[in-house]
Amino acid sequence: MRLLTSAIAVSCLIASSLALAQDKVVNIYSARHYPTDEALYSDFTKATGIKINRVDADDAGILARLKAEGSASPADVILLVDAARLWRAEVDGLFLPIKSKPLEDAIPANLRAKAADNGGTAWFGLSTRARVVVYDKLKFSKADLDSYEKLADAKFKGSLCIRSGSHPYNLSLFGAMTEHLGPAKTEAWLKGLVDNMARSPKGGDTDQIKAVAAGECGVAVTNTYYLARMMRSANPADKAVTEKIGVVFPNQSSWGTHVNVAGGAVARYAKNTDNAVKFLEYLASPSAQNHFANGNNEWPVAKGVSFDNPALKSMTGGSFKSELIPISAVGMNQVKVQQMLDRVGFK
Ligand code: FE
User: Fold this and answer.
1) Three-class SS of 82-131
2) What is the 312 CA–ligand 1 centroid distance (Å)?
3) 1-38 residue pLDDT tens
4) pTM value?
5) Domain 129-258+326-344, what fold?
6) Among 34, 166, 266, 274, which is most exposed with the fewest C-beta within 10 angstroms?
């Protein structure tokens, strides 16, 4: 309730600034929880003169807020950090499908969602993050873990650390597994993960990495940018953690490593639609794409963008094979996945 009250207060603030500068503003609801993004926003304003009003919340908070606000919502752009959430928002009718040649040219077709109604695009993936496996180098080797399937092997009994199965990052990974293996095999695999857990799921991805380094678990699952952040950290404790662990990009010899997207869309009731499209086009530009890579350790999605991030390079040796299933299908599986998690007791 307190959240809603403050949300309404912020909405009123935004509404009043809207009245002052109707045509030189864009209102963004963002779930990107990365301080390094500040430069992204200020560069856009510098280049276009369009002022950004930003509301930061987590994905679930943004979706709830958009629903509560309905057609009165001041939101023009919505930025979310997971395919399952993007899919949910689209299904809930929170996006205004758009047509933009620059965005369609820049972003590969499997990383954007075709809108059902007007032939436009409902949302665009703007950067990717791989969901990889890390392991204790004293206990295991790369070959033990070169596929997601192997995480269910009996040899990892009591070794696996992973965040909650219901977290969007895992719902998307498991949704992708459902595409690759089919539901029956995926459910058996999930049961195998539960059997192998070192502890009941808790914490975020960084906590799992640290637990491997601390010897509490032998293997864990994490998004790459959390790992890259620690590798590039000036804090010696972070460096010490990354030196103890190995990283595997699973399924290089089959369908490729699971990648999730952070993406954006125009809000269904946007008042500054042109500015919203301009902002999304800006995020697909080489400079913004480079920023995703160097600022937040994500992979750019726009075609032909080169970047230089030492942590990402050292992890992959240059490049890796990522899965090519349509990212929208991953989100679509999340209800099915949640039911499987409940059945196998994956918290
Ligand atoms: Fe994250």
Assistant:
1) CHHHHHHHHHCCCECCECCHHHHHHCCHHHEEECCCCCCEEEEEEEEEEE
2) 16
3) 344 444 444 444 444 444 444 579 999 999 997 888 89
4) 0.88
5) D-Maltodextrin-Binding Protein; domain 2 (3.40.190)
6) 274
